[in-house]
Amino acid sequence: MKSEKKTIWIDMDNSPHVPFFRPIISELQARGHEVMLTARDCFQVCKLADLYGMEYRRVGVHYGKNKAMKGVGLLLRSVQLASYVLERKPDLALSHGSRSQMILSAVLRIPTIMMTDYEYAKGVPFFRPDWLIIPEAIPESRVNEHSAKIRRYSGLKEDVYVPGFQPEQGVLDELGVDPEKVIVIVRPPATEAHYFKPESLHLFEEAMAWLGSRDEVTVVLLPRNDGQAALVRGRWPELLDSGKVVIPAQVFPGLNLIWYSDLVISGGGTMNREAAALGVPVYSIFRGEIGSIDKHLSDCGRLTIINNAEEIRGKVELKKRNRSKEVEKVNRPALQQIVEIINSIAKEL
Question: Can you give the residue range of the structural domain that contains 109?
Fold first, then answer.
């Protein structure tokens, strides 16, 4: 008789995966499943996992934006994962778009669930998941190429973990930021991603120049890596020296930073959607293909898409927002829906 309790391998290869999988892991363990966790050492993935006290195996790094090196790094990380995976013998593989996991799972014939909330993210040629879990807002026609069994959940990926968020006290004090200022979180675009467009970087630079000229504003800048931090320090040293732009010296959970801000300007999808989920005004400077989720949020008035430099000055409202003491309680069934999908698939194996 087959056991309904399975070993589920989750691979985290980008920083948003840490808060996303944390409640999913707890729910799967509560249902009796064993979870083995691997993490790629890049984009603060491991630092965030350490901050949350998660137990994981650190495997692989990022190889930059050069396509050839990306390909080499992808295959190398798949090989590096192999010894640990062969040792643990998982019944099911789960990720939010881990290409290394996809390759290794196919070679080892491990049934695979992939999740995505951006239909234009590139997969790995000739490798496909067995199941694909996506938000309801993404039309099935956009993901047909995956040739997988499609399962859906309501709302946003960020709805999985926002309900469990409790704002921590003293965040602004730790940052050294005056709470009377208009606090703007700025996230640069993912310049190493395959979907990066130079227009996003241009909008980021325009936004920094404009915000730096406004006396009422303090910018909390969240670079994606040390290279971006060095670029900013070299380009706008006077803003950093004056305290007008602050780069956090330590890792903070993104939701805490967003909660204590007045608005967000970001070139990345997850931070935009986190702000929308928290009800914080958010402006997207992402100029790649706009996905169904961002289109939906824009249509609902929960996200403003910035198309050019003129719209930064014309659309972005620099004002203090009325912040409640806790996150608004709304029905967010995404977590339970996703866990039930995973649990039902595990039972089929």
Answer: 7-163+332-348
- Could you tell me if 19 and 128 lie in one domain? yes
Note the pTM of the prediction, 2 decimals: 0.91
Residues 114 and 158 in one domain: yes
| Same domain for 222 and 106 | no
* Cα first-last separation, the chain: 12
pLDDT tens-digit map of 317-343? 999 998 876 777 778 999 999 999 999
Say yes or no to pLDDT of 178 above 60. Answer: yes
327 assigned to some structural domain: no
